[in-house]
Request: fold
Amino acid sequence: MAQTNDTQILHKHDLPLSGFAGLKEHQLVMDTRVHRGHKKPDTFDGIGGFIYLADAYFMPHGETGMHPHREVDVISVMVKGRISHGGSLGDGGELAAPNVQVQRGGGEGFTHNEINPDDVENRMIQLWVLPQQKGEPASYHIYTPKQGEVTCIYGTTTGQVTTIASDTVIKIALLNTGQAIQFDTPVMAYLTKGSGIANEIKINDGDLVKFNHLTFEATDDVQLIIIYVAG
Reply:
C-alpha cells in the first residue's frame, strides 16, 4: 500500500485471495464500523456509508449460495461475463457486463444467490453501503452504464427516483482513451479495467485509491468505480 498525507493506493494483488462457496475474491474495503475484529490487515476503511468492497471471480457454474442481507444496500458491478440472479428481489434476472445491480435491504431484508451460468470464470465487484435511514422498504434496481459516460448508480438527493437517495454517491465511469474527469471532494475510486493517470500517478486495473480530490485521465478504455460523499 502506497501512502502520503493526501494519497493512499491499495493494490489488489498485495492482498490475500480468499473466497467462499463457488467464488474467490480480494477484499479491499472492510470498514471498522461493522467488521471490527474481523477486519483484515491492510484493507481500507470506507467513506460515508460505504463499508465494503470485494473483487470476486466466480468459478465456472459457481454461485454464492442463497443468503440474507438486512439494513444494507448491496451493489454488484459486472466487469466480465454474466451472472444469473435468484432471490426475493428480481428473481430470475440476468446481469451482464457492464451492467450494475443494486439491492436495498431495508427493514424487511432480502435473500439472494448469484450464479455464474457459463463454462468460464467471470468477474464481479460487490460493494456494501449502509442506508442513510433505517426501516426503508427493500427494492431492486438495474443500471446500464454507457461507454464514454459517467453514470450515477447510487445516491444523490432525496425526492428523486432514479437512484436510492443517500449522501453517499457511487458512479461508474466507462471512459474512452484520453477522456478526463475531475472531483473536487474526497474520493475513493477503484479501477477495474484499463489504466489511467490519477493526480499524476499511474494506476492500473485492481488499484483502489483514496484522494482528497481527484483528476483522472484514461490512458486506455477504462471502467472506474467512484465513491464520494455529497456536500
User: Anything to note?
Assistant: The mean pLDDT is 93. The radius of gyration is 17 Å.
